Amino acid sequence: MNLYTATTIVALLLAVTAIAAGQEQEFLARSRRSLNDVPLGGIKPFSEKQAEEQLQRTLDKLTAGEGPHYRIAKVYSASRQVVSGTLTRIDADLVDSNEDQHRCIVEIWAQPWLAQGHDITFKCRNQPVVRARHSRSVEWAEKKSHKKHNHHALDKVDHLFHKFQIKYGRRYANTMERQMRMRIFRQNLKTIAELNENEMGSAKYGITEFADMTSTEYKQRTGLWQRDEGKATGGAPAVVADYPGEVPKEFDWRQKNAVTQVKNQGQCGSCWAFSVTGNIEGLYSLKTGDLQEFSEQELLDCDSVDSACNGGLPDNAYKAIKDIGGLEYESEYPYLAKKKQCHFNKTLAHVKVSGFVDLPHGNETAMQHWLLNNGPISIGINANAMQFYRGGVSHPWKVLCQKSNLDHGVLVVGYGVSDYPNFHKTLPYWIVKNSWGPRWGEQGYYRVYRGDNTCGVSEMATSAVLA
Ligand SMILES: *[C@@H]1O[C@H](CO)[C@@H](O)[C@H](O)[C@H]1NC(C)=O
Ligand SMILES: *[C@@H]1O[C@H](CO)[C@@H](O)[C@H](O)[C@H]1NC(C)=O
Question: Which of the two ends of the chain, N or C, has the fewest CB atoms closer than 10 A to its terminal CB?
Answer without folding.
Answer: N
